[in-house]
Amino acid sequence: MELWIADGVVVEGPLPDAVTVADGGWIVPGLVDAHNHVGIAPGMGVTIEQARAFAAADARAGALLIREVGSPVDTHPLDGDPGGPVLVRAGRHIARRKRYLRDYGVELEHPDALAAEVRTQARAGDGWVKLVGDWIDRDIGDLAPLWTDDQLVAAVAAAHDEGARITAHIFGTDALHGAIAAGVDCIEHGTGLTDDLIEQLATKRIALVPTMIQVENFPSIAEGADRFPTYAAHMRALHAGAPAVFAAAVEAGVQVFAGTDAGGFVEHGRIVDEVAALAGLGWGATGALAAATVAARRWLSAGRCEVGDRADLLVLAADPRIDIAALRAPVAVVCGGVVL
C-alpha cells in the first residue's frame, strides 16, 4: 500500500511532488501511552518547557498519543506543538489530605467534597478524571481506601454527568470493590485484582492499565518503607503476584492498555518497554501491539491512520507481530505529519 500525508493529515493520493519518507516496511499507528505524567518529574516543580521536553522524548520513542492521568502543571500550552504528541488529560489527581504524594494533586480536607471536585477536574481535563483510590494510611501502616462507597458512587455520577470518564489509581484489593461497584471506567495498576474482580471488569467493560514497568519498582518502594513493615510486605506481595494477575485479566477478556506511568520512578520514552512487558502476558506481540495502537486508539476515540486522521505513525523495518523489538528502531516516526 501507499500512504499519503498532506498538512499533517492522511489523505487520498497520489500527491504531486510528494517526498518519500520510507520505501518499504511496516506501518503502525502511533503508539499510545495510556498512563503518563508529562507534567511530573522527581523533585516536582516542573516547568512547561520541561514538560515539553518530556513529551518530545515520549514522541521520539513512538508514543504519539498520551493520556496524561494527573499533573500539577497545566500542559495545555503543549497542544499544537509541531511534532508533539496528542495529549488527553485528566486534570489533577484527586486525593485526601496526607493520603497521597504532597503537591501532586488536589488534597481534599473533607472527602464528601469529592463529587464537586470531580466536576471541577472534569472541566479542566479532556474527558477524563483521576482519583487516588488507595494509598498508605499511616495510622494503620498499610494501603487503605480513600473514599467510602457512597462517595465513589457520587463521584462517578458527577464525572459521567460532565461527559467525562473516571479512572482510579489502586494498588491493593480493598479499594477495588467500591470503585468497580460504583462503575469507574478504568483501573490504573490493579495489582490487587482477584478472579472475581477480574470477571467484573470484563463484564462491565472496565479497562485496566497495568503499568507493568512501574510495578517493577514496588520492591524498591518497599525498601524505603521500613517504618511500615506491613505496607512494605504488602507491596512486595503485590509485585510478586502481578504477572499472574495481569495474565488472568488478559485471559478473561478485560480491556488492557499500555501505559508507562512515566514521570515519577519511570523515565519518559519507555513505551516500548511496556509493550514488550505486555507481550509476555499470554497474548504475544500481536495482542500487546493492539493494546498500544489500534485498540487503545479506539478506546480514546483517536485516529488509526485512516484518511482524514492526523498523521501519527511509525514505519518499521520488520513486522512487529513477529518481533516486538522492531518497535525499538523505527525507520521513521511521523508525528502530526512531521518526521521526527
Shape estimate? globular
Order of helical and strand elements: EEEEHEEEEHEEEHEHEHEHHHHHHEEE
Largest sheet: 4 strands, antiparallel
Strand content: 15-25%
Mean pLDDT across the residues is: 96
Helix content: 25-40%
Question: Explain this structure to me?
Answer:
This protein has helices at 48-60, 114-124, 149-161, 174-182, 195-204, 212-215, 218-223, 229-251, 271-279, 284-292, 294-299; strands at 4-6, 9-11, 26-29, 31-36, 63-68, 86-89, 94-96, 106-108, 128-132, 134-137, 142-145, 165-170, 186-189, 207-209, 312-316, 332-335, 338-339. It is of the alpha/beta class. Helix 5 links the parallel strand 13 (186-189) and strand 14. Helix 3 (149-161) crosses helix 4 (174-182). The two termini are 22 Å apart.
Features:
single chain; about 350 residues; alpha/beta; four-stranded antiparallel sheet
Task: Break the fold down into its secondary structure elements and pairings.
Elements: E1 4-6, E2 9-11, E3 26-29, E4 31-36, H1 48-60, E5 63-68, E6 86-89, E7 94-96, E8 106-108, H2 114-124, E9 128-132, E10 134-137, E11 142-145, H3 149-161, E12 165-170, H4 174-182, E13 186-189, H5 195-204, E14 207-209, H6 212-215, H7 218-223, H8 229-251, H9 271-279, H10 284-292, H11 294-299, E15 312-316, E16 332-335, E17 338-339
Parallel strand pairs: 4-5, 5-6, 7-8, 9-12, 12-13, 13-14
Antiparallel strand pairs: 1-2, 3-15, 10-11, 15-16, 16-17
Helix pairs in contact: 2-3, 3-4, 9-10
